[in-house]
Amino acid sequence: MTPRNSLPRLSASAALAALMFLTPACKDNKETAGGGSAAANKPAGAKIALLLPESKTSRYESHDRPHFERKVKELCPECQVIYSNADQDASKQQNQAEAALTNGAQVLVLDPVDAASASGIVARARQSKVLVISYDRLIAQADVDYYISFDNEQVGKLQGQALADKLKADGKADGTIVVINGSPTDSNAAMFKAGAHSVLDGSGAKIGAEYDTPDWSPDKAQQQMEQAITQLGKDKIAGVYAANDGTAGGAIAAMKAAGMTPLPPVTGQDAELAGIQRIVAGEQYMTVYKAIKAEAEAAAELAVTLARGGQPPAAKVNGKVNNGMKDVPAVLLTPVAVTKDNLKSTVMADGFWTAAQICEGSFKDACAQAQLQ
């Protein structure tokens, strides 16, 4: 069953502001943080493990990691971040978590490769009395302490609604679409899928082919799109639901190779630079922008508080999400649909990507036409 949020969402900025209270001062290890009573027993130089799932999606190395590490350093200079990336290998992540625990990590901030098997990591952390924050992806069937992410079903709804609206505007509301979902081992992918179907299934569009994409691999998404083109015919595809920018890139590569002109509208997610550039160039219709800086900083603040023995007041955590074992206290940020029309007021206004980054090389002319420079 797809987990559902039980409380209203906050905007990214509001959710981040709500967490500012979480961070205790690091200068005095006898202070009690956030109303907790155990801070005096915690060393000033706490160890926090950040365990990220993969690097094929560029956000993790270019945004999540640096924002998290910078915020921890800012809040607690003596704290040490133990960082690992599992490269989409659940066994490797298990070993990395074990190494972090052996190295004395007091909090695990874990973005799981496999939402189900990661429950074993949580159980092992519990044996060592180590707290676990489920970051971005929800760990299933596990005694997780907190969950920090976006409203992931809403992400799918934004994607599905954007595609349905575009098809209607193009006079193709009842057209045939291809659906390329995310990895079946990612709990978020199930929520994106559920959100998208909640819109698309009643939109009048016909789903001609649908796939789940192992490892979120752009190459596999390209192969899936090639199969769909062969099955349906390149002139019969009115739109493509792609769950993120990587799979969108794979689908677009397949359509360009097949000579599809003009390209049908394609959705995406993560506001990756390549995805934003495709939007500017007219190859991808939309993406979903998630304020990763706010997410990573919120996780860092919570991790520092917990590592110092503090406990955030429950009233400041704005949601709960059931992971099959418990209702996990959650901080849920709000995603935003981005098209060429609102690039300036979203990803560029936040400094997520600058005009110089977006408009380099072959994208200079397209940026000029879109008045981004």
Automatic annotation (TrEMBL):
Keywords: Signal. The keyword Cell wall biogenesis/degradation does not apply. GO terms for cellular component: outer membrane-bounded periplasmic space. It holds the Pfam family Peripla_BP_4. Residues 48-310 form the Periplasmic binding protein domain. Residues 1-27 form the signal peptide. One of its GO terms (molecular function) is carbohydrate binding. It is found in: Cell envelope. Belongs to the bacterial solute-binding protein 2 family. This is ABC transporter substrate-binding protein. It comes from Melittangium boletus DSM 14713.
